[in-house]
Amino acid sequence: MAVFTFTNLRAPAMPTRASLSLKVKYELCVSIQRCGCFRYSNAFHVVNRGRVINCVPAPSQSAAAAVNGVSGYTCSSSCFLFCFSSTDTNFVLGNAQIVDWPIVYSNDGFCKLSGYHRAEVMQKSSTCSFMYGELTDKETSEKVRLTFENYEMNSFEILMYKKNRTPVWFFVKIAPIRNEQDKVVLFLCTFSDITAFKQPIEDDSTKGWGKFARLTRALTSSRGVLQQLQPTVHKGENVHKHSRLAEVLQLGSDILPQYKQETPKTPPHIILHYCAFKTTWDWVILILTFYTAIMVPYNVSFKTKQNNVTWLVVDSIVDVIFLVDIVLNFHTTFVGPAGEVISDPKLIRMNYLKTWFVIDLLSCLPYDVINAFENVDEGISSLFSSLKVVRLLRLGRVARKLDHYIEYGAAVLVLLVCVFGLAAHWLACIWYSIGEYEVIDEDSNSVRTDSWLYMLGETVGSPYRFNVSGSEKWEGGPSKDSVYISSLYFTMTSLTSIGFGNIAPTTDGEKIFAVAMMMIGSLLYATIFGNVTTIFQQMYANTNRYHEMLNSVRDFLKLYQVPKGLSERVMDYIASTWSMSRGIDTEKVSQTVLQICPKDMRADICVHLNRKVFKEHPAFRLASDGCLRALAMEFQTIHCAPGDLIYHAGESVDSLCFVVSGSLEVIQDDEVVAILGKGDVFGDVFWKEVTLAQACANVRALTYCDLHVIKRDALQKVLEFYTAFSNHFSRNLLLTYNLRKRTRHGEDRPGV
Fold it and tell me: Residue 627: helix, strand or coil by DSSP?
């Protein structure tokens, strides 16, 4: 197993991971601005603030290092990750194999600290001699150079200059990074600003100050630094929480389109019918509606009087919630006949009064409260019990909002199962009512022994008895719980066409109802469970298509005997692309959408798809809407897998590439001369050159990358038409790496 050696870095002993088959040299992932990472494969080893995590000493390498007089710990080549926060760590990486150790990567923290753009420091010396000035100590700078020449680890305090020529004291730490042959391949240089803890720098601007002035400046500077350092943690946490809250509430800036219609202004106390609160409230009303649809038929059929205080309170709370829903409906927008959102309070109230107000009001009357009084006459009590059926009008709330509930396949599945169970419950209540009406003949004061209720009582040991000494009426019979369970069991077996026959209709009324129930059951069974099959097929359609595609690709690779390494790359790419696109053929869908949509809408979609490029690069800030739309129509999105070559050395450079995500390496003469990440640009300055350039290096993807690419001819066409933007674009666009210019080893190469 190949290993990397981090000299003089402490590390806890942790087991290493085996190298995977992906033979990528190393990768610098810049998926977020606060993190840079090198890796050899798919596992990670971390170096955080000078400490190596998940690394162990390799016996062979430790022995070799001891022979060479070098101490250090080793890290598996399966991965190589630097994790530095841009807020407290500023670093650059230099190639130790090239003369003058050119910088191949600088993080955002260093760029912010020095004032240089990343493109301006790429290929400059890792000694940062371009930041030296007249007050830089020559002896210290010579020590820095010797540290690089001798491949040593060292630290220095050195005065350097920012881009605006402001002198700054830096604490610089230099650490060489070795490969499996114990050869230094990279230098890691970290920078810390320690100006506040040094004496004031006396240049031309500070000469002539008195001792008191210098002392006052030093105290003020130190106090300012301490005030900044003290609340760093808490302030950072608050800002992070606030930003996360804003991102959640606004669904993230990346999700919202750049060009969109102005959000309609609604009057105060008006609720949008599509807002999150109203959607959640509608689901609560749906659940309570099903509760009402279950309890009302049961109470009416079994003639239960709500003497139980608990159930009376629950039903009263439900009634109050439905009354609140009526109030909310008076303040909720609706969609008008022309498709517009009506937010005028008067129109909303008139519309609700003309449509569902009366039905909703009748379903909310407190029938249980009136029926609960003991002194209510039996006839009036029966009347109010029957009026409870009016509450079933609440199902109209579900009917008019059905389009909101069936947007998702899982919700439709749950609703269909609930509807089937609700139908069985209703039929069970009716089945009991028929049996209870026919089991006792009040005219002859006798019991019908062929009734299913009588036979159920005999079976469960609770037969009907005639009270001779008292009321001289039939009493007893099975309990209500047993009766309801048996009724539900019979209706379920009938609706599903099973029918065991242990409970069967015997009287004429029961037989007529059983025939009607079988007809209803066959219709419900075919409708509901037929839709269930369709829903399951739709839910797993993408998964089935994915597995079919994988099988086809495997057969193709096997048929043509594609090498194992390439086969694994192909399969890995397909899996990654599928997970990102969620099973959607993005190219086919995008072409279809762009063909269907009119030109104006098509341009808006393209601007949205390329919004990250337009927002991140200052060269596009002064572009007009028309210019952005013209550029967006010419951009193409490319998804690259690890190991893919975007440019081969010697190829014509006919495109300008913007890195949106992922990382790439630029290789010249088998040496890494640059590592590109999010926000970087590479290609050629077409607007300054007449001839078509040849790529002087290979550009290879290290991770899965998303590139936004625009062709040379298309870009020149837009720049020729928009002259004002062309001047601004040519001045402000900095290429992180210009593929036209070959890197001269040992010379600083300024950004383009």
Answer: helix
